[in-house]
Every structure is written in structure tokens, then in C-alpha cells.
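[Solved] Which block belongs to which protein?

Original post:
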Amino acid sequence: MKQMTELQKKNVLRQSNKESNALTRECIESALVLLMKEQSFSEITITDIIRKAGVSRASYYRNYSSKEDILEKFLQKITIEYSNALTKYDPSTESFESWLELLSRTRKLAPQFKLLLQAGFGEKILDRFIAQCNKSNNESNPYLFITNCYTAGGIYSVLSQWVLSDMEIADNTIATICSDLMMQGLKNPVKCALVEDND
């Protein structure tokens, strides 16, 4: 059997380190999700996270600079999944399929999505959704810009409320309703009830 060259050994070691770091990140992310079921994000310390994850402080800081950094990575992951879902189908002709894809990807990332919402990152998620919808458009086309903002806001609202309600409504039901709305618009606009000020 041929001996490995130094370069091959380094490549094996690099791959091993990469896999080790990926496992460490997975443990840390899972630990934060579990801790958020017991405490608010502001109460959780890095010490709490590393204890729950069973990793060293050095391993933690090799992967994350702060606990907010974990949320930022979640946000990046959700944005990538959202972007991939929207580009897989043409929303103007395959709206139902597009919604099913969005819901399927959201279901997989529901713990992270919910954690971001509970940690007050909802506005950041919405900002990313809006930026993603307007990626190929600039504000010089106001109609397209406003349409994209409106669409992103609707998608964010549906997905966030769905996740917060533990995804009780079936994917097909949401996809049917939302694709109808996207293709035909609101037939019977809902009038929001005004809350009276009793003071």
C-alpha cells in the first residue's frame, strides 16, 4: 500500500477539521434552540450554550464570535433556502408549486425560524426577504419595487405566523390560498376592525 504524501495527509486533516467544525456548529445551534424553550434569548449566556452543547469555549469561538452570530448564521441559512425556493419555480406561472417549496423548506428550518422570531429578529428576516425579492430590480421602477415589497411582506407574514402556530395548517391549504391570492388578488378585501381608544 502506498504511503500518503504530506499534501494528502494535510487534505485528510483539513477535511477532518471541516467535519469536526460542522458537527460543533450543529451541537451549538441545537443547544441554543433547546435553551430558547426554557429562557429568553437575552437571558442565555455563552456558558449556558457551551454546557448544553458539550463543547469547549475555544471550539465555540472558532465557529462563532457571539451568541448573536448564531442567529445571523440562521438568518443566512433561511435567506438562502428562501432564495432557492423562489428560483426553483416561476411564481407567475407556478405559484402553487412555488408556495409548496417555500413551505417545505420552512418546515425543515422551523426551529431556527421560530428562534429568530422569538429573539426579535423578525424585522431582519423581513428585510432579507424584501432585499431578495428586489435583487434584480432597483428602485427606478417603482411599480416593480412596491410589488416586490408587498409580495415579500405577505410571504414573511404567512410563514412567520405559520411557524409560530406550530405549522397547524396543512401545506396544501396554505399553498392553495396563497397561490390564488398571488394569481387573482384579493377578491373581497378584508376591512380591519379599528380598535377604539377607551381613554
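(Second protein starts here: sequence line, then its C-alpha cells.)
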Amino acid sequence: MNPKALVLTGYGINCDNETQYAFTSVGADADRVHINELISGERSLEDYQILFVPGGFSYGDELGAGKVLANKLKINLGEKVLEFIKQGKLVGGHCNGAQVLIKTGLIPALNEDYVTQTAT
């Protein structure tokens, strides 16, 4: 059974198609899922082993790189993402996606502190 990767999409995120292709080219099943589909419950993190946030300029990088998407992710899906991590599932991002993960406090998550932003 192939691992399932959720490639997050949303306003201003780009290279999600290329990221989906990268996952499928190494044998994963990858779906592009809009953040609003996760928030509404239309799609579920529970169906995936990998959560990946691609790059771009999410929400036009208003208020700073990745800040709006990070807040939307943290406020609406924070507990679900923490449970995802506790189950040993993978979370990653590149470019703006990495900035989103930093702003949520998910990385570097020193001493498993997944809430406090310790990098900028």
C-alpha cells in the first residue's frame, strides 16, 4: 500500500501540482486538498500519512510570509495537526510552506513544543 500525501492548496499557494507530481513519482498517492475542505470536514487529515505545505505567496503574504495561512491552519486545524504528528505521521513544507510551519510553531518544535514560534 502506497503512503497517501495531502498537498495543501489555498489562496496564493503555487507549485502544488509539481509537489503532487513529486510525491507520485516516488510512489505515493497524492491529493491536492484546499485548506477549506479540511476546515469544513469535506476532507480529513486522518486519511493521509503525509501533510505537505508547498510554496508560493499564501494570502499574498499579508502580515508577513505565511502568517495568514499559519493562523488559519493553527486556529481551525491545530488540534488535528498535533494528533497527526503524535501518530508519527509526516509534516513538511518548502519555501512559503516552511514559513507557514514555522509561524504555526510546528517547526522547529524543540522539545516537542508545537505551539511556540521559536524561529522567524
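Accepted answer:
You had them paired correctly. Confirming on the second one: The first strand starts at residue 4 and ends at 9.
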